[in-house]
Recover the amino acids of this structure.
């Protein structure tokens, strides 16, 4: 009986240590990735016309643009959550449940496309809408935010609503540039 009790205590101790190490790793990543998104953009008082939505989606994650495994956890961006996504003249609003809301201003939008996955979720084919935006003026690479529409029929209309909002930047090679040409 003593050996079983000792084994349970050791096992519980190992689980607690593992959880502490995981939490420390998450916090360390949040500090490292804060340089890419030092703060979340604030939505203006007037968002303008609603161009699409709101529609239910899953906010999956935000990563460094072009590297779908380099997750950004600063400012709550690492937390997967349900979201209501709506596109306005002023930008894209993601009202998230259990995590900070995210607003991407029109001026920060760089690209929108579909992809098979992003950090935290791989669905195959083109099941994820990836919105590329510039969180800080001194980071030309930007970040990618992945959204999984609850209904597949919302994927293309979301992309189509965002494309006209994208400001063309030199060297941009995206669906936005092709459609804005």
């Amino acid at each position: 009986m003593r050996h079983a009790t000792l084994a349970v205590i050791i096992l519980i101790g190992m689980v607690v240590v593992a959880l502490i190490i995981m939490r420390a790793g998450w916090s360390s990543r949040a500090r490292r990735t804060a340089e890419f998104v030092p703060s979340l953009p604030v939505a203006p008082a007037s968002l303008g016309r609603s161009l699409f939505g709101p529609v239910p989606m899953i906010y999956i994650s935000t990563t460094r643009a072009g590297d779908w495994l380099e997750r950004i956890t600063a400012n709550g961006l690492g937390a997967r959550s349900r979201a209501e996504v709506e596109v306005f003249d002023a930008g894209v609003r993601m009202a998230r449940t259990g995590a900070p809301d995210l607003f991407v201003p029109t001026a920060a939008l760089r690209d929108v496309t579909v992809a098979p996955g992003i950090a935290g979720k791989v669905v195959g084919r083109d099941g994820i809408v990836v919105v590329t935006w510039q969180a800080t003026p001194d980071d030309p690479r930007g970040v990618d935010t992945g959204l999984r529409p609850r209904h597949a029929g919302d994927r293309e209309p979301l992309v189509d609503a965002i494309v006209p909002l994208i400001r063309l930047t030199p060297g941009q090679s995206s669906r936005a540039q092709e459609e804005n040409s």
Observations:
- Confidence is low (pLDDT under 50) at residues 169-173, 175-181.
- Residues 2-33 form the longest helix (32 residues).
- The radius of gyration is 19 Å.
